[in-house]
Amino acid sequence: MLEMRGIRKAFGPVKVLHGVDLEVRAGEVHALLGENGAGKSTMMKILCGILKADEGTIRIDGREQDFAHYDDAIAAGVGIVFQEFSLIPYLTAVENIFLGREKTTSFGLLNRRAMRTRAREVLGKLGVDVPLDVPVADLSVAEQQFVEIAKALSLDARILVLDEPTATLTPGEVEHLFKVMADLRQQGVAMVFISHHLDEIFEICDRITVLRDGEYVGTCEVSAIDTDRLVEMMVGRRIENNFPPKPTALPDRRVVIDAKNIQLRKNGPVSSFQLHQGEILGFAGLVGSGRTETALSIMGAYPAAAVEVEINGDPKRPANPKEALERGIGLLPESRKDQGLITSFSIMQNVSVNNYGKYRAMKYFLDLKKELEATRSVMKDVQVKAPGPNVAVDTLSGGNQQKVVIARWLNHNTPILIFDEPTRGIDVGAKAEIYQLMRNLTEDGYSIIMISSELPEVIGMSDRVCVFRSGAIVATVQGDAINSEEIMTHATTGKVRYVA
């Protein structure tokens, strides 16, 4: 159904795609894999008419296509679920789904009833109940993801591109999506599926095409390859173990955070935890179990009903993130682009943004040489791969963007770090680098709270794990008890303590 041949694309002197081929059959789910920066998203933007290829051809059902813009691709039966949401935050789900192709009555008025009925029908296929009449800005990230998916499905596309569609979904929601994809496969829809979760590739996909550094590496049947070989195709080398070794024994170290009587909502469950110097404390549990809210409550970024916090022995609770930063707490948020970075700024500006006071030469001037030297130093420490400190952050891969956020906190001297979903949307090679960086930091005396929905990540990286359920910590496990059975048992059946 789809043939892309010899696709080349450059942005100025930077060559992004070097004659890449892709062939997708009707009724198959075809994985497009590669590290961040391999050219996957650029390839798909060319398919959807968002970008224009410098060279190469696109054929759909044997007919050559030349898309001038996105509407041309839609008319040819191509739909895409973008990795970065393309929703208008202050419009409702219905208004977003039909934006630019609104249904009208015979009098030329908006047919809101027809649009609402169709939106409910498409969301029903996904097995989710998303509020239709509130701005999407008020929806959860997962609900916004389903609106994005529904927007593409409503096009009745014959070729559907899904770029990291599961990144914000729970396992149950992913299962619903895969059922929908199976139905679409039966209907003859050709799907291009991009994901960094290799287990999903082996579960849902039929064939795989791998790109590396903008080059075509190869295409193979899923049944003819294993994970190790697939990773080697993607990164050009074998990765024997994603996770660095844990310390064999954690020495008795001082408590840097002692959080007690945490109550996220009034009359809700109560819990407590401690974070020690030089450890990685994992926060595990199902989505919505209170992991992120608990971490944010200790730095004054979430309005918990009650919480008592001692930071390095000081019992004063930070009133807001600014005070938490002054007390040495840095946050790598779940959504790095929306909450962790100013993407139009350079690496140096992002690294310095919280800490310009240290570069003040006089009352109204900055010592730019000092700022540049400091930025280069922390970039080297965290191994940011970029031409230089003045490169815009939005040109970097996801893994390097994460490293820029970490570099900012190292530059600000924050020995307590909260990492919320630190490897979401990051390829397997960059994950290994982030994991090693985290372990290096703890060896240097930093303390890390790691919130993750990926159980292998929690097990492989954590020295201890706090397991959450229904808004509270129901167990803290360590040593051999850090295993999937133990953690999931507590996460799904653990007893929660409530107060009157």
UniProtKB/TrEMBL annotation:
It comes from the Bacteria. Residues 2-238, 250-495 form the ABC transporter domain. CDD domains: ABC_Carb_Monos_I, ABC_Carb_Monos_II. It holds the Pfam family ABC_tran. InterPro entries: AAA+_ATPase (IPR003593), ABC_carbohydrate_import_ATPase (IPR050107), ABC_transporter-like_ATP-bd (IPR003439), ABC_transporter-like_CS (IPR017871), P-loop_NTPase (IPR027417). The keyword Translocase applies. The keyword Membrane applies. Keywords: ATP-binding, Cell membrane, Membrane, Nucleotide-binding, Repeat, Sugar transport, Translocase, Transport. SUPFAM superfamilies: P-loop containing nucleoside triphosphate hydrolases. One of its GO terms (molecular function) is ATP binding. PANTHER family: CARBOHYDRATE TRANSPORT ATP-BINDING PROTEIN MG119-RELATED (PTHR43790), D-ALLOSE IMPORT ATP-BINDING PROTEIN ALSA-RELATED (PTHR43790:SF3). This is Sugar ABC transporter ATP-binding protein. It comes from Paracoccus maritimus.
